[in-house]
Amino acid sequence: MQIGIDQLAFYTPKTYLDLVDLAHARGEEPDKYRIGIGQYEQAVIPVTQDAVTLAANAAVKVVNETNRDQIAMILFGTESGIDHSKSAAVYLKRLLNLPDNLRAVEIKQACYGATAGLQFAHDYVRLHPDKQVLVIGADIARYGLNTPGEVTQGGGAVAMTISAAPKLLNLDNETAFRSEDIMDFWRPLYRTEALVDGRFSENVYIDFFKTVWLDYQRQTNRTIADFTAFAFHLPFTKMGLKALRAVLPEADAEQQKQLKTNFEASRQYNRRVGNLYTGSLYLSLRSLFDNAVLKPGQRIGLFSYGSGAEGEFFSGTISEQFDAQQSRQRFSEFFSSRQQLTMAQYERLFSQQLPDHDVLLDVTHDDARFVLAGIKHDQRQYLDRNKA
Questions:
Q1: Active-site position among 79, 150, 310, 312
Q2: What are the pLDDT tens digits along the chain (388 aa)?
Q3: Are 38 and 23 in contact (CB under 8 A)?
Q4: Strand order in the sheet with 339-340
Q5: 378 FRET partner, CA 20 to 30 A, in 168, 261, 276, 312?
Q6: Among 41, 106, 111, 150, which one carries the catalytic annotation?
Q7: Is 122 considered catalytic here?
Q8: 108 is in an annotated binding site
């Protein structure tokens, strides 16, 4: 029985910053960001969007009347949770009008949370092949204005349905994972911006990738020759390129060329959106599906990494039903419709934060279906414009 990713959708607001403008404003050469970091643009998230609304705006693209009653679980990976106690998945379940007889759980381990959800979903569907699981990765990456991490900010959400007989990717059963208590990135409960030891985190990322890649090879007896492409967690796209270069010598010249070409396809969306934390790997996978020349049966390797730290290498084969044409068109339309912000607009939007008390937000500048309208009696007020 084949189990894997049936649908994979993405959402981020239309407001974005061109990193050439950011470089000029911060006294840096644009190529430091465009080539050295591998980023061109980054999404800027308004105060009327949070992890829940981002997830809902992505999930409505994969949840409809044909599969609504099949969904037995929501697994919501995020490190941008809105409550110390209540799961973001419960809010999402209501916004999507899903049945009450399902599980709704939030998962946290830095950028790895959505992958944990994917693997749990895989095991569940194996036992319940008539059901589907909705897996979410939704985050807002914030490091602060005029900080070293500013260039790697961003945000958005991916939504995946995991099912039997999937239309996109059949997941292999074998997987290799590793976890260690490492302080390369963290955000204490009292902070809205993350703390990161950048160079150390890059080294840990590469070390984890090489370790789980070797473990995967020992388990499966597969080699790099068995892979058409790799998709990576991309906090910034140069990071994935560094990981790919660590294993390229294992491939012959022809395959090295193919792997590099497909990596370029896999980072097209990420370099224009920025860091998604839990959703980053899966936006890269979506970009690979849409921008590479792929065929059913080809094997894709995926590397997930969450600082703190946890890493996993797993794989899957392209489904016989694979067709990326509609997704490719939607992304093309999305990028052409975005609103570029000036530096002043970006800094003003970035600095708007929810207060610690009740507030009514102006949602007229946010055209999303789901928005955060404010706080009342310490409860977030979500608006579905289709029901307003």
A1: 79
A2: 899 999 999 999 999 999 999 999 999 999 999 999 999 999 999 999 999 999 999 999 999 999 999 999 999 999 999 999 999 999 999 999 999 999 999 999 999 999 999 999 999 999 999 999 999 999 999 999 999 999 999 999 999 999 999 999 999 999 999 999 999 999 999 998 899 898 999 999 999 999 999 999 999 999 999 999 999 999 999 999 999 999 999 999 999 999 999 999 999 999 999 999 999 999 999 999 999 999 999 999 999 999 999 999 999 999 999 999 999 999 999 999 999 999 999 999 999 999 989 999 999 999 999 999 999 999 999 999 998 6
A3: no
A4: 41-43, 15-18, 339-340
A5: 276
A6: 111
A7: no
A8: no
| Whole-structure pTM value | 0.97
> 3-384: CATH homologous superfamily?
Thiolase/Chalcone synthase (3.40.47.10)
- The response to whether 112 counts as a known ligand-binding position is no
Which of the residues 41, 106, 150, 233 is marked catalytic? Answer: 233
242 carries a ligand binding annotation: yes
- Is-catalytic flag, 233? yes
Measured distance CA(374)–CA(355) in Å, rounded: 10
Q: Is 128 in the active site?
A: no
